[in-house]
Amino acid sequence: CIITLDWIRPLYRYTFVDYFLKYFLFLCNLTFTILGLVVLGLGMWGLISKESFAQEQIGSIGTDPMLILVSLGFVLTLLCLSGCVGALRENCSLLKLFSAAVLMLITAQVLAAILAYSLQDQVGGYLRSGMLSAMVRYQDDLDLRFIVDEIQSNLQCCGAENYLDWEVNIYYNCSSPGVLACGVPATCCVDPLENGTVWNSQCGVGAQQLDEFTAQSVIFLGGCLGGISRWIEQHEGLIGTVAVVVLGVQILTVFISTRLLEKCKNMECTFFSFFVAIRGQLHWFQKTSQIICKLMRKKSLRLTWFITSVSRFLTSLRP
User: Fold this and answer.
1) By CB count within 10 A, which of 3, 206, 241, 255 is most buried?
2) Does the pLDDT of residue 251 top 80, yes or no?
């Protein structure tokens, strides 16, 4: 009996679009996996270089900005790695995990945008509290110092609401006995470079004691919260474009993952049908074999009976 399976046809065939989507998703996730590893490495390097895991500093690690990089890098690496391997190996479980995670991320981003728009006043209060907290730890945390300096120098601002906010820092408070008393950081200065070449770190000393008319020629009077608001208003179009592009890329990855999942399910159905067909043909072959064996057994019994009868007849003819 020859079992032929030529009539079995696959329920799904690979197309050029399928190959393109598969490797496009793979390359995108591979790129972001590498980016996530870089971010994770930078965060770990920052924590280790500052000895944040030391016993005396482990209590304040929760407020360390480098922890944000570590968390972001870890989540990005884990998420994109699952999508990368799932797309390459066409693993349905990993693709489902990746799609669900991206959908949750999209939902969280949309909800965050809605909440930020509806609670603008409270968001401003949170930003002010965060800025003041960073100013308090300005001398103690190099990362916060770098962030505050970048904000003040790029936005040309000083303090949260105005330059007098630097009183919250114990080194710049007027009651401080140090040389920085009643001063502000050099990044608040209008011209922190002497002769355009040398950085003058003492240009903001005593600036809090000056009246606004005199101080405006030395330091920036406006706070950084207003500078951030103006920057957002000036770049609304760019921010909106970037947000739409990022959201669109995430939706595209979900679409591609769904397409690959559909292909995986169709392939599973194909293999299932294939094995069912084999099992069916084997079952038919088994039944046929049993029938043939029964017929042969019957013929064998008849032949044995015939031979026995002839033998008995010949024996009876002997004298």
Assistant:
1) 206
2) yes
